[in-house]
Design goal:
This protein is α/β, with parallel strands linked by helices. It has helices at 9-21, 37-49, 77-87, 97-100, 119-122, 126-141, 153-165, 195-201, 203-217, 222-236; strands at 4-6, 26-31, 52-57, 91-93, 145-149, 171-175, 240-248, 262-270, 273-281. The protein has two domains: 4-175, HUPs (Rossmann fold), CATH 3.40.50; 188-279, Pantoate-beta-alanine ligase, C-terminal domain (Pantoate--beta-alanine Ligase, Chain: A,domain 2), CATH 3.30.1300. The termini are far apart. It binds adenosine monophosphate. Residues 31-32, 38-39, 41-42, 148-149, 151-152, 175, 177-178, 185-188 line the site of adenosine monophosphate (AMP).
């Protein structure tokens, strides 16, 4: 069956009605398009768990700040639809901004606390835009399960929070980050990197992996590892380092020692391109 493309909410609901009445599972994979292996991995997970797999493609203007890359964000719908279908999508939801935010639109979903630090500190309003559009997508499609990448770890926790807080009846599944052979996390923004910037970029996952390995051995000196990592990133040639921080994996609270699952998260800039990455850290064996 070729994938169906729908562009507004009534068409989405109509397309999903037969599946819903037949009790088929419905999975949703929200994306901004420019699909790569990371997105396709989410779609494959979705197809493994549900008969109906909705992939949304929407470059959400509300999650871009003034001066960010909304205008130049890569758009390639025809290729995306073919790739999504190849990975198992049954329906593509590709609304216009006017279908998502018609005249008179006035509502924002805002998640407190989790959104305050890390990317939230450098991209004011970004997580309000994300929380709002994801809430809308979940209520529009009413999927049984929705898949999100750990690549955007703070975003994943924000979505888990809003789903719990607003009693949205959906299961949220996080999927580990898909990487290039040299470790760089796949991102739609990697196409903006020059060959020289692309070489520098590998220092990001390398530094995070080194910190994770060191703290898995000895979780006592988080501050020293953060300082080491910042120095590594500075020496590697990034144009700016927004942050490199160790946080609790569930609450994103700052930590001094690793005694519970933690996460090392960073955001850096190469020219006008901003890259983010994060990795898990398990407490050293023997820590209670
Ligand atoms: P985006 O199109 O960038 O908004 O991403 C759509 C979804 O794909 C989000 O849940 C991302 O976390 C996820 N994603 C993006 N890059 C990767 C990656 N390299 N590995 C796994 N998931 C990813």
């Amino acid at each position: 069956m070729p994938v169906t493309i729908v562009r507004d909410v009534p068409a989405l609901r109509a397309a999903l009605r037969p599946a819903r009445t037949q009790g088929q599972g419905i999975a949703l994979v929200p994306t901004m398009g420019a699909l790569h292996e990371g997105h396709l991995t989410l779609i494959r997970h979705a197809a493994a768990s549900c008969r109906q797999v909705v992939v949304s493609i929407f470059v959400n203007p509300r999650q871009f700040g003034a001066g960010e890359d909304f205008q130049r964000y890569p758009r390639q719908e025809a290729a995306d639809v073919a790739n999504a279908e190849g990975a198992g999508a049954t329906l593509v939801f590709a609304p216009d901004p006017a279908a998502m935010y018609p005249g008179g639109y006035a509502t924002t979903v805002s998640v407190a606390r989790l959104t305050e630090g890390l990317c939230g500190a450098f991209r004011p309003g970004h997580f309000d835009g994300v929380a709002t559009v994801v809430t809308k997508l979940l209520l529009q499609g009413l999927p049984d399960v929705a898949f999100f990448g750990e690549k955007d770890y703070q975003q994943l926790l924000v979505i888990r929070r809003l789903v719990a807080d607003l009693d949205i009846p959906v299961r949220i599944e996080g999927v580990p980050t898909v990487r290039e052979p040299d470790g760089l996390a796949l991102s739609s923004r990697n196409v903006f990197l020059s060959p020289g910037q692309r070489r520098v970029a590998t220092a990001l996952p390398r530094t995070l992996a080194a910190i994770a390995a060191r703290l898995a051995q000895d979780g006592r000196d988080v501050a020293a590892q953060e300082a080491w990592g910042l120095a590594e990133l500075r020496a590697a040639g990034f144009d700016a380092i927004d942050y490199l921080e160790l946080r609790d994996a569930d609450t994103l609270a700052p930590i001094d020692v690793v005694v519970r699952p933690a996460r090392v998260l960073a955001a850096v800039r190469l020219g006008t391109t901003r890259l983010i990455d994060n990795m898990p850290i398990l407490p050293p064996e023997g820590v209670p």
